[in-house]
Amino acid sequence: MLEINNIHATVGDKPILKGINLSVNGGEVHAIMGPNGAGKSTLGNVLAGRDGYEVTDGAVTYRGNDLLGMEADERARDGVFLGFQYPVELPGVNGMTFLRMAANAVRKHRGEEALDGMDFLKLLKKTIAELEMDDALLKRSVNVGFSGGEKKRNEIVQMAIMDPHLMILDETDSGLDIDALKLVSQGINLMRSPDKAIVMVTHYQRLLDYVKPDFVHVLVDGQIVDTGGADLALKLEREGYAAYGVNEAA
Amino acid sequence: MNAPLFTEQFEQIRPSLPDGDAEWRQVALDRFNALGLPSQKREAWRYTPLTGLKSDLTAAALDQESIGAALKAQMIPGALHLAFVGGYFVPELSSSLEGVGGLSIANITQLLIDDSAGDGDALVNDIVLNGGENPDEALVALNGAMVSDGAVIDVAPGAQITQPIQLLYAGNPTGLVNVRHIVQMGAGSRASLVEVAQDADAQGWLNVVNQIALADDARLDHLRIMDDGEQASHISQTRVSLAANARYESFALLSGGALARHDVQAVFTGSGGHCGLSGIGLGQQKQIRDVITHIDHALPDCTSAQTFKNVMDDHASSVFQGKVTVQQDAQRTDAQQSNQNILLARTATANAKPELVIFADDVKCAHGATVGELDVDQLFYLRARGLDEETAKQLLVEGFIADVFEIIEDESLRNHLRNTASDWLGTS
After folding, report:
1. Which of A53, A101, A151, A159 best tests the B interface by mutation, with the highest count of B CBs <10 A?
2. Which residues of B fall within a CB distance of 8 Å from A163?
3. Best interface-test mutation with A: which of B383, B398, B418 has the largest number of A CBs within 10 A?
4. What does the pLDDT look like over B262-301, one tens digit per residue?
5. Is residue B122 scored above 70 in pLDDT?
6. Pairing mode, strands B288-297 and B317-326
7. Mean pLDDT value across residues A29-53
8. pTM of the predicted protein model
9. Fewer Cβ atoms within 10 Å of its own Cβ: the N or the C terminal residue of chain B?
């Protein structure tokens, strides 16, 4: 699914990623943990193709193609989904219209017919029921006036509608109360399947109680310094990152 | 002194104008010639050159059939249509008023002819020679000299006209067309007026003057679409007076033509009134979208709200000169003004000049102006959801202007204007 090979990246000339290697196969869930400033969000943004994140070395292969050679929107249509840490408010952009445009952009890319209003509504109703989400939010402008939890749940609705292959979820658990965390986790778990992969970037272990990872990676100062199973996250929760030379209190 | 600009052309076209040899036409032309064409040294015209103003007044031979077809395509279903082709009212393309109570519509030049034959110049002085007395108003004076036609719309006291009254302009391939409308809203009456200039073949100048008077408790919703072809210029000058508790709501979409200028001056002649002016300017290439307003809070307890948004691309420029005067007696005035601009290219320009002149002390006044680009985080968010850059930009621009349309109360008119803007954006 995804092969990251020795990626170096800078943000505004400042080196952030310093040689990342990661291999993700279909059906797997990976968690990337690390202290603040380690480069977790940068990795997500580099994979999603955000402007201002310059890859200076290395390569990324996604489903056999050169990911870094694709534009951000092309990656999204090809099945790479970035769940935002801070979903952006879009005043005046209707949630329903936005979702349908996103869904149809993906469908067109896959050679499928665009969904008309009625067919889209059917799909949306079904998706929302599965996710136990509230469709009232979708009648408003995208994310405008939403609570932190509502924004994250909206990300999950977008993810389900776009039906991606690779999901990169950046701090999706931040700002969620326990009920919202459960709903969001349930949404992520519904997306798990043998032909899909999930990479969760998170600061805390609690999301991993609900979405159990196959691999946990520790990212420190732009490099993956340790890899283990789900139990590694528990150990990090107990002991922090001191073992990797990080003093989080500083 | 300014050389007489249009004297020769005026003499040529005069015989073909209704009441062409009337003295008042000469008075108005003399007034215009004395004022001269406003130069860009005048603040009100600083951003808008009139150098290209056509002096060719010869009416081109018009293909009535194709114009009729084009006009029909612009007609809003369910509205009362008043069609003006080449500056002349065309009854065959217009609606019958049969069965519409409380509304009378007359032909302005016919009234003037009748008046000339009658007992004096009251009508002439009230109408044609009203305005156009200072250098910024030169085009109002020119309109007085050259006016070919216009509607006199009288809404009877208490009448509630539910059908929008739509004024359509077409058939101006080269020259200068001068149209003048008089709208009189009787006490407690209500109506909506929609002006549409959407002639793709227009390349001339359209110079429209509206004189609107609202009696006590009257309400007029006044919508305007300035969406002519690329070479056209459209200057619209609206003068409004509002008696006690009257309400005037104006919305203008400036989306077509090389130049679209929307000039509104409103004065409260009674207390308790409300004047709302709003609009959207969309420009590309070297187009100019010019909004100039003056609301005169002459009396207490009146409110005004202005919301104008512009989106300029390429080398286009927008102008917002919004002036609010609060006179000494106008206590408890509430005047709000907002102008927001998005520039889609570094070469585009927004000129924003809000101006408050306040002589009273118990007032609430606010104005704000912003100029910016599309937000990069919003753009990335949309692209991360699979939308290509062009579509993402269109969606953000549509979102930026979306709330201005909400001011339009009538849903079908709101959708009509929104669709016109979507056509411009390519999102329809």
Report:
1. A101
2. none
3. B383
4. 999 999 999 999 999 999 999 999 999 999 999 999 999 9
5. no
6. parallel
7. 93
8. 0.90
9. N
Chain B residue numbers touching A92 (CB-CB < 8 A)? 398-403
* Structural domain of A74: 2-83+148-244
Identify the CA nearest to B372 among candidates B336, B348, B355: B348
**Greatest Cα-to-Cα distance within chain A, rounded to the nearest angstrom:** 56
Residues of chain B with C-beta less than 8 angstroms from the C-beta of A76: 383-386
Give the mean pLDDT of A107-111: 95
User: What tokens appear for B94 in the block?
Assistant: 């217009």
Distance between CA B306 and CA B295 in Å, rounded?
A: 10
**How far is B428 from chain A, CA to nearest CA, in Å?**
12
- Are B400 and A92 in contact (CB < 8 Å)? yes
Q: Is residue B33 part of a domain?
A: yes
Cα B249 from Cα B219, distance rounded (Å): 8
What's the CATH number where A169 sits? 3.40.50.300
Average pLDDT taken over every residue of chain A: 92
**A215 part of a folded domain:** yes
Q: Is residue A229 part of a domain?
A: yes
Q: Do A76 and B402 touch (CB under 8 A)?
A: no
Please give, rounded to a whole number of angstroms, the shortest distance from the CA of A236 to a CA of chain B. Answer: 31
Distance from CA of B398 to the nearest CA of A (A): 7
**Does B356 reside within a domain?**
no
Contact B385 A76 (CB under 8 A): yes
Instruction: Identify whether residues B137 and B264 lie together within a single domain.
Output: yes
Number of domains into which chain A is organized:
1
Model ipTM? 0.95
Closest-CA residue of B relative to A155 is: B385
Question: Does B239 score more than 80 pLDDT?
Answer: yes
Are residues B245 and B380 both part of a single domain?
no
Q: Give the model's confidence band at B115: pLDDT under 50 very low, under 70 low, under 90 confident, else very high.
A: low
Question: Is the domain of B263 the same as that of B409?
Answer: no
Has residue B322 been placed in a domain?
no
Of the pLDDT bands very low, low, confident and very high (cuts 50, 70, 90), residue B246 is very high
- Tell me whether residue A7 is in a domain: yes
State whether residue A11 sits within 8 Å of chain B by CB. Answer: no
Residue A249 has pLDDT above 70, yes or no: no
At A50 the pLDDT is: 94
Q: What per-residue string of b and e applies to B261-274 under the rule 16 or more CB within 10 Å gives b?
A: bbbbbbbbbbbbbb
Name A206's bridge partners. none
Decide if A90 and B396 are in contact by the 8 Å CB cutoff. Answer: yes
User: With 0-12 CB in 10 A as exposed, 13-18 as middle and 19+ as buried, what is B156?
Assistant: middle
Does the distance separating the beta carbons of A109 and B386 come in below 8 Å?
yes
* Rounded average pLDDT over A32-56: 92
Residue B52 in domain: yes
Among residues B235, B254, B270, the one where a domain terminates is B270
Give residue B411's domain range.
376-428
Q: Rounded to an integer, what distance in angstroms lies between the CA atom of residue B104 and that of residue B122?
A: 20
Instruction: Give how many domains chain B has, as a whole number.
Output: 2
pLDDT of residue B1: 41
Q: Are residues B257 and B390 in the same domain?
A: no
The candidate with the shortest Cα–Cα distance to A32, out of A249, A197, A149, A184, is: A197
Strand order in the sheet with A215-220: A80-83, A166-170, A197-202, A29-33, A215-220, A223-228
For residue A94, what is the nearest residue in chain B, using CA coordinates? B399
The residue of chain A with its CA nearest to that of B390 is A73
Same domain, B250 and B388: no
* Residue B387, pLDDT score: 97
Say if A50 is an interface residue toward chain B (CB within 8 Å). Answer: yes
Q: Give the residue from B225, B254, B270 where a domain finishes.
A: B270
> pLDDT at residue B117 above 70?
no
Contact A92 B382 (CB under 8 A): no
Q: Is residue A6 part of a domain?
A: yes
Contact A72 B380 (CB under 8 A): yes
Do the Cβ atoms of A90 and B402 come within 8 Å? no
d(CA B287, CA B351): 13
A109, two tokens: 């890319």
Instruction: Note the pLDDT of residue B428.
Output: 57
Residues of A in Cβ contact (< 8 Å) with B374: none
